[in-house]
Write the C-alpha cells for this entry.
Amino acid sequence: MSDSMQRIKELTATIENEAVRSWKEGGGKVFGYACVATPPEIIEAAGVLPYRIRALGNPDTDIADSHLSRFNCSFCRSCLQLGLDGTYDFLDGLIETNGCDHLRGMFENWQYVKPVPFFHYLKVPHLVDEGAVEYFVEEIALYRDAIGEAAGKEISDEDLRGAIASQEKIRASLRDMYESRKAEEPPFTGEEALALVLLSSAVSSDEFLELCSAVVDERKGSGVGDYNARLLLIGAATDEPMLVHEMESLGGLVVSDAMCYGSRAFWTPIDTGADPVRAIASMYLEQLLCPRMYEDFPRRLQYVKDAIEEWNVDGVIAVHNKFCDVHGVDNVQMRLALEKEGMPVLTLEKEYGSAADAGRIRTRVQAFLERIGGRR
Amino acid sequence: MTALKVAAAPTVGLFDRVSDLFAVINMLPDTMSDEEITGLMKVLPPDSAHSLTAMLKPHLREGSLAFMKMLAGWLQQAKEAPEQGKKAVLVPFNFPPELLHAFDNAYPITSELLSSLGVIALEGRGERYWDMARGLGLPDHICSSNSIELGSMLASDDFRPQALVSSAAGSCDINAKIHEFVSHYHDIPQFLLEKPVDDSERGIEQFQKNYLLLVGRLEEFFEEDLTYEKLLPVAEKTNRCAELFFDLWDLHKASPCPVPNLFALYTYGVRFSMWGTDAGIDCMNTMVDVSKRRLAAGEYPAEREVARCLLVYTSYYFDLANLFNWMESKGYSYLADGLGLLFPEPIDTSSRESILRGLATEAINMPMTRQVGGESMSMSWLEDALYVAKELNADCAIYSGHHSCKQTWSVLSILRTEMMERAGVPLLALEGDSWLERMTPMSAIQQRIDEFVTNVVASKTETTRRKVGRKKREEA
C-alpha cells in the first residue's frame, strides 16, 4: 500500500480523526451533516469545517435503540449511537435534512437527548418543478444566513464562490479518480475508492486535495488485475470499507458505484458561473440522484445504465440496509429494469455493520460472483 | 397414492372480490333481525362471517349497515367509472377525495381503504396479495396497507386506475415509494402532491401553491375545468361532513362513551372515501343519531367504563371482533386513533379560489400529513395527541406499532416521554402489523392491553379518584 493511501485509511478509520482534532485545536468549528442533499459549500464559506456524519460500520446501537426503534435502519441507529455516546462531541453544529424518515428520526432524537449548540433544518423538496426549485433557493438562502450567524461571519457571494470552487475541485478530483477505474486494470480497488470518498468530507478541502493528488500520482502505472468480475455497487448509505473489502476478497472488483457515500455525491459538476445560491440549489435539488425523489426513477436508471456501459460492468450489487424504505423499493425497481436488459443483479439487504450478517453476505456475493464470473 | 393438487393461480384481484362482496351486502335490507343475520353468516366464508358478525352486533348494526352500503356505492361507482367516461384515480388515505368528487370525469379510490376492506371482508384476509407483492422482491417491511391492494394490482388482472395521486412525500417514505413503483410498473401517470416539512407561513403557502398546481395538472389530465359550480356542492357537503364529525367528536366526551368503538374506524372510512358527498353525509348522520340515542338511553356495552383509550396512530384491522368489540366488552372505550385525527376547518364557499384554498387546508390537515409531515415529526404528533387526549379525557394512549410506520417508530420514545410528563397519559407501545393477521397474534395484543389497563391505567385513575375525593373532603 502506498504511503498516501496508508494515511488516507488512517484518517478515515476513525470518526474524530487527526485532521479534525488539529482543526479544533486551532480554534475552528465543525458542523456535521448526513445527507447528500446538504451543500457543504455554505459551511466551508463560513470558515467552518463541514463533516459528513458516518458510522464506519459501528455495530453497537444499545443507547440508540432506546430512542429509535428496531424498525429503523441500523445505519441511522449507529450514527445516533455515536452522537449520544460522545463520539461526535466535537461537533459544534448539526444540519438536518429530510433525507428520509429514519434520518429525520435520528436528528430529532439526537437533538432531543443531547442537543448540539447549533442546529439547522434544511428542507429539501421531493420533486423538481418550478415551485420546488424556487422554494429550495429560499431554503438555501435561509441556510446561508443561519450558518453565517452561527459562525459569526456574514457569508458574502465572494465567500460562497470561493467555497463552491473549492468543493468543485474536490468533486473533480474524485471524478478523475473514478474515471481512472474504467481501465482494465484500475489503479484503485473499490475499498480504496470508498476511503477517498469518505476522506473528502472528513478533512479540510486543502488537506483532501493534497492527499488525493499524492495518491493518484503514486498509483500511476499500477493496476489491479487479479479479479473475476467488474462490479457496480448501487443503493443506500454505505460507508463501510470493510463491506467492499469482503466483496473484493471474493474475486469481484468494485469499479464504480451509484451510492450515497459514493459517486452520487460528486458526479455532477456545479455551474460555477451562475448566481451562487441558485447554482447550489440546482446542484443539490435538480441534480440530486436519490430515490427520495419520487418522480425521478428514469433519470436514476439512466445513470446506472451509463455507469454499467462506461465502466464495463459484469454485475450489479444493489445494497440497502434493512428497513430502508426508499432504497429497499428502488433496488427492486432497478433489478427488474436491469435484468430485463440482461444485466445480472444481486439485491442485498443487510444489517449495517453487523458481524453476524457477514457470513450471509459473503455467501450471497460468492454465489453471485460464481454465477457471473465466467463472463471474464 | 395421493393425487397432486395444483391450485389455480389467484388471478382474481382484491378490488374485484371486494366489490362483488359489497354488491351483495348492498342488497341487504336496512334493518335485519338477529335470525336473519345468523342465517346470512352461514352462507359466508368464515373470515368474512367473522368480521360481519362483529359489525352487525345489535348496537352496531344500524351504523355498520349504513357504512357498508356507503362503501358498496363507492366501490360500484369506481367499477363503473370507465364505462361512464370517468377516470378512476388511486389516492392514498391522506389525500382528501372531495377534490376528485368535484370532477365529472374522475373518481377516487383509496388504496389503504381497499386493503383494509380486503383484510376485513375477504376470505384469507387479503394475504395472497401481500405475497404477490413480496413475490416481486419487494421487502418484507413495506407497508401492508398499500401493498395488499397494490400487490393485487401488480400481480393479478385486477381493476386498474388510470392515474395515481401520491401525497405522502414528506410524511411517509414507503407510501410515496410504493405508489411510485406501481406507477412505473404499470405505466400509470402519477401526480405528486408534496407537503413541505415546514410549518412556517412560507411552508404552508408553498403547500397551497403545490395544491393549486396539482389541480391544474388534473384539470388538464381529465380535460375538464373545475368550475365554481362543480366545486360548490362538494364544498358544502364537505362542510356538512365536518359538522357531523364534530357532533360525533363531542359525543365522545361523555362518559361512558356512547359512541361504539367501531365508529372510530367508520368515521375515517367515510373521510377517506365519500367525504363531501351525500352518501358520506348519510353515513355520518347515522353514526351521530345512533350515538345520541345511546347517550340518551345511557347504553354502554360493559358494566362500567374502565379506561378511555386513545390509539395514537394506526389500529389493527384484521380482527374487528377481538379488538374493537373485545375492548368494549371490557369497558375500554376506543375514543379515536391516529387516522381519525381529523381537524377539518370550514371551507369558505364564496368563490372558486376560496374553495380551493379551503380544500388545500383540508389536505394539509389530513392525518399523517399534519402530524409526521410537520417540521418536527415528534412535536407535531405530540401536540395533536395531547390535544385529543385532553379534549376527550383519555386515560391512556396505545401505539399499535405497525412495523412499517418507520416515521412514527423513529420518534415514539419522544412521544411516550412527553405524553407522560406533560399530561400524565401513559402510553403502551405494541408491535405488530395492522393489516396482517399472520404477523400479529391478537390474543397477545389483548393480553398486553389488559395488563396495561389493569396495572397502569386503572391504578392511575383510582389514585386520581382518591386525590379528588380527598380534595373534596378537605374543602368540605
User: Anything to note?
Assistant: The first strand of chain A starts at residue 30 and ends at 33. The radius of gyration of chain A is 20 Å. Chain A has a mean pLDDT of 95. Residues 157-180 of chain A form the longest helix (24 residues).
